[in-house]
Amino acid sequence: ICAILAAFFARMFFAAQTSIDYIVDNGTTYLRICCCASLGLFAEIMFERLLQSTGRSILSMYTQGLGAIVNIILDPICIFVLNMGVAGAAWATILAQFVSGGLCLIRILMMRKVVQINRKTLHLHKFYAAQLAKLGLPSGITQAIFSLAMIVVQSLTNSMGTAVIACTTVVMRVDGFAMMPNFTFGTAMTTYAGQNMGAGLLDRTRKGTRDGLWLAVGCACLLTACILLFGENLMRLFTSTEEVVRLGMRMMRIIATGYIAMAVTQVLSGVMRGAGDTMTPMWISLFTTVILRVPVAYVWAFLTRSPELPSGSSDALFFSLLISWVMGAVVTTFFFQRGKWRTKAITGNAAKNAEA
Fold first, then answer.
1. Continuous H helices in the chain
2. What is the distance between the alpha carbons of residues 305 and 293, in angstroms, rounded to a whole number?
3. How far, in Å, CA of 188 to CA of 181, rounded?
4. Largest CA distance in the chain
């Protein structure tokens, strides 16, 4: 449903964000292709999570890595050799997702002692369907809230000119690499907490959370140091325009320490989700991304307007992001310490009783 709506309203969406025809035309093409083939993304995520839940996270990592390699190889072929332009980039991404998801599915089908996928098992069970909806919908809403906030802030970005748009794009590319470990730790902690809370091992969950925090924060500190030291070289991988590199490096210095805060947020939110408390991370995300970041960005931009910067300083975009990340870590830590998530888990015995 979301894919159909997004494909139908794609041009309207981009036209509302910018008046630059080049961005509207290419963005519409890219989004419509990705929406029409969104089954590939679903397959990739669904089957990778199934593998991770059985403890085969290394295998999941290999399939993701292979998918990334396929994407890297297909991108220049589709864009330049086949002259498909932006559409080629979209098709390359989709094919890579199908490859990654397909490999995971093949491996799952071979694990008949662990999980079985056939006509007999593929039927709805009211209890599990309700639990999946209860756990899944808040997480989906969280992602939707985050995307909505990004769209609103993107409108502000577009008003600041092509240099800021290009710079933001480059920074987000680097940000994707820097943020990936945080998301990975968050996913790992969701799986870990789900397994252990489901088995009633609360003490083991606490110890794993502590170790996960140390690992995530340590990795974030290392990445932050690398960004501060080698950020300019990373920028030049994506652009040769000096103004974009200079502005991008300033933005990266602003948000660099925020990755440490995000490490804390992702780990603790992952534990809460794994234990069955998906509502608390959703409300925290709503607060930090919509109620906090968007107003801060627009107010900051308004207060920094000048004849040279009629739409305000681009600092507003990234200081607001840093503030939301830090506040997110503080609020998440507070609610994690309150411990409501400890009572949310559905254990194996509870599931059996519900089925009975």
1. 2-8, 10-17, 21-36, 38-53, 57-76, 85-109, 126-158, 162-198, 202-236, 242-255, 258-274, 279-286, 294-303, 315-338, 348-355
2. 18
3. 10
4. 71
Return the SS3 of 278. Answer: coil
Over residues 305-348, the pLDDT tens digits come to 988 888 888 889 889 999 999 999 999 999 999 888 888 765 54
* Cβ burial 175-196 (10 Å sphere, 16+ → b, else e): beebbebbebbbbbbbbbbbbb
Q: What is the pLDDT of residues 156-205, one digit of tens each?
A: 888 888 788 888 888 887 787 778 888 889 988 988 898 888 888 888 99
pLDDT given at position 356: 47
Sequence-distant (≥ 6) Cβ neighbours of residue 212 within 8 angstroms: 185, 188, 189, 192, 267, 270, 271
pTM of the model: 0.72
Gyration radius (Cα) of the chain, Å? 22
Q: Tell me, what amino acid is at 147?
A: S
Within 8 A by CB and 6+ apart from 187, the residues are 49, 52, 270
